[in-house]
Write a structure and sequence with these properties.
Order of helices and strands: HHHHHHHHHHHH
CATH superfamily of one domain: MazG-like
Number of helices: 12
Radius of gyration: 24 Å
Oligomer: single chain
Number of strands: 0
Low-confidence stretches: none
């Protein structure tokens, strides 16, 4: 732990020094760094899906840099500093884990999550909605999952995934029965939402599942592109039969 703290202290010193001496670092603000932080977060998410631990380590470092950088900017503006961030976080973790640091008895992860949400509702400014803590800017799939988690945290949930499965089938039937395109779009949204709910209740993170499938599709399609290049044939000139044959080859090796 001592060596880790020394290394963290050195990183903080470097960030402070760069903030003073580097022309680019001196110009950065909360606003200018925001899009870079979002990009770094997505890069970490991709590394986590790939389970590329070298890349995960690197991307975690990049995010840590952003945290320290934001803290430095805030300190310069007399808003808060890194010490305030860590103390606030430590206090919150202790407060939201009464089963560890208090007398509360919680037997499983689901109960811990529900209690976490209950405690959250008592903290800070009174929120008008349980869902107020879900950022509007989240990708739709992740946002749906988090809203469902929030609602479940206060008891608005199916008893198990069987109810969610029946709801999914109901939504699919409603989509199939609709002919108006605008209404079909809305019904398809309901299908997605119900599927995400079923995933959640089945212990499957839908974003992770879809990310894995996207990665799988990318690898297999790039295999087809590679084979087309080896045959010196434009992909657009290759028949669907040929592409499917290479796709099946890719399935066997990936």
């Amino acid at each position: 732990m001592t060596e880790t703290l020394k290394s963290l202290e050195r990183l903080i010193e470097v960030v402070h020094e760069l903030r003073i001496k580097c022309p680019w670092d001196k110009e950065q603000t909360f606003d200018s760094l925001r899009h870079l932080t979002i990009e770094e977060t997505y890069e970490l998410a991709e590394a986590l899906v790939k389970k590329d631990f070298d890349e995960i380590r690197t991307e975690l470092g990049d995010l840590l840099l952003h945290i320290i950088f934001y803290a430095r900017i805030a300190e310069e503006q007399n808003k808060f500093d890194l010490k305030a961030i860590t103390e606030s976080l430590t206090d919150k973790l202790i407060r939201r884990h009464p089963h560890i640091y208090g007398e509360t008895q919680l037997d499983n992860a689901a109960d811990v999550l529900k209690n976490w949400e209950k405690i959250k509702q008592t903290e800070g400014k009174k929120k008008k909605s349980v869902l107020a803590g879900v950022p509007d800017g989240l990708p739709s799939l992740v946002k749906a999952f988090r809203m469902q988690e929030k609602a479940a945290g206060v008891g608005f949930d199916w008893e198990d995934n069987s109810g969610a499965w029946e709801k999914l089938k109901e939504e699919i039937s409603e989509f199939e029965a609709e002919s108006d395109m605008e209404k079909r779009t809305a019904e398809m949204g309901d299908v997605f939402f119900a599927l995400i709910n079923y995933c959640r209740l089945s212990g499957i993170n839908p974003d992770e599942a879809l990310s894995l499938t996207n990665l799988k599709f990318k690898h297999r399609f790039q295999y087809i592109e590679q084979k087309a290049e080896e045959k010196n044939t434009p992909l657009s000139d290759m028949s669907l039969y040929e592409m499917e044959a290479f796709w099946n080859e890719a399935k066997k090796i990936q």
